[in-house]
Design brief:
With 360 residues, the protein is mainly alpha-helical. Helix content is 66%, strand content 0%.
Length: 360
């Protein structure tokens, strides 16, 4: 039996295009290899899943933007720039598509979360029960200029995520600093490898030049330009008004998902990016715990599940009915306990889960 079939079974093997990543399986966790196989299918078998497409668009767009920045920085070194001119088309995204194990699990998960948020943001202007033009009123009073400016900044930042284009269409890489650094050094390695193979420059002289160019981009990076950060700033500027009980329901009804996650993060004392991650990719039980801890009624939970359908296609009408019945049995005390666990560091929970598995 092959390693391929032993992992997933012969019946499922033809449906899991993992050949491209199996060669590096020993270097990556199995779960990450499965993710890579779905995001980068082999044998030309395209997946028409909207979340996959959005995730690839964010990955390819941010990577291409970083490549453009690196090429501009490298123009200060003419021999390197001349070597790269032999390949005027984008290099980094095709390289990643061919060698997806260059992507780490945390970076891929973050991009999947961004892709999921983009899908939900595309529902903007279609409040609950409305399938035509939005009749929802403004969330905030037009008299408060500072709030209006913060809301406008959030809308503009969201719009940068929603622009359509090919996978290598540049997108502002408004990533958290750690993820930006990983993607930057990945792009730098892709370009440096090409320059070293060009035969026009000394291979040993390439790496310091590319490292210096990368440092320039690192120094310029501002993770506060993205829509998640803009939503956090808006909630901070609201102060105590952010605790108004009707505000979260209004944000969800108007499909302002980033505002909703920022408001939820404030009330639950969690990072909004973690709330977004749970909504997009977390177990449904965690979504239920968040909703109950926020004081959500049975009806609120059903509306939340309906709103999450673009990123959770498994939420059929039948599934939502079943989850709603289970939600009725979830107490506030149970939800608060679950949220307290979610607040602990991810690394701590991962190591503890590992110890539990190996010790039985």
């Amino acid at each position: 039996m092959s390693a391929f079939s032993s992992l997933i079974g012969s019946t499922a093997a033809d449906n899991w295009p993992m050949a491209q990543v199996m060669a590096g399986m020993s270097a990556v966790p199995v779960g990450h290899a499965i993710d890579l196989a779905f995001f980068f299918p082999d044998d030309g078998r395209d997946r028409h899943d909207a979340l996959m497409a959005e995730t690839r668009r964010h990955l390819g767009g941010c990577l291409t933007a970083i490549e453009i920045g690196l090429r501009l920085a490298l123009e200060q070194t003419p021999e390197i720039a001349a070597a790269l001119e032999q390949w005027p088309q984008p290099i980094c995204w095709p390289t990643i598509c061919g060698q997806p194990t260059l992507l780490g699990p945390a970076l891929l998960a973050h991009m999947q979360m961004r892709g999921g948020l983009s899908l939900m943001l595309r529902q903007f202007g279609r409040p609950d029960g409305d399938h035509g033009e939005s009749e929802a009123g403004p969330l905030f009073s037009a008299d408060d200029m500072s709030i209006g400016d913060a809301m406008a900044a959030l809308t503009l930042a969201e719009g940068r995520w929603l622009t359509t284009g090919a996978e290598d269409q540049p997108m502002p890489p408004d990533l958290p600093a750690g993820h930006f650094a990983e993607l930057l050094w990945t792009a730098t390695a892709c370009l440096a490898a090409v320059a070293q193979r060009s035969g026009t420059v000394d291979p040993d002289a390439v790496l310091p030049v590319f490292e210096a160019a990368g440092q320039v981009l690192l120094a310029r990076h501002d993770e506060a330009t993205g829509p998640i950060a803009a939503a956090d700033r808006l909630v901070r500027s609201l102060g105590e008004r952010a605790d108004a009980p009707e505000l979260m329901g209004a944000a969800l009804a108007q499909r302002r998902f980033l505002l909703f996650t920022a408001l939820a993060g404030r009330r639950l004392r969690m990072e909004s990016v973690q709330v977004a991650d749970i909504l997009v990719m977390g177990p449904v039980g965690q979504v239920a715990a968040l909703c109950r801890a926020l004081g959500g009624s049975d009806s609120d939970y059903r509306h939340l599940l309906l709103a999450l359908r673009p990123v959770r296609p498994s939420l059929s009408d039948t599934r939502i009915v079943g989850e709603a019945l289970r939600y009725q049995d979830l107490t506030v005390e149970q939800a608060d306990a679950a949220v307290s666990v979610m607040r602990t560091p991810v690394a701590l929970r991962a190591k503890l889960d590992h110890l539990r598995r190996i010790t039985g």
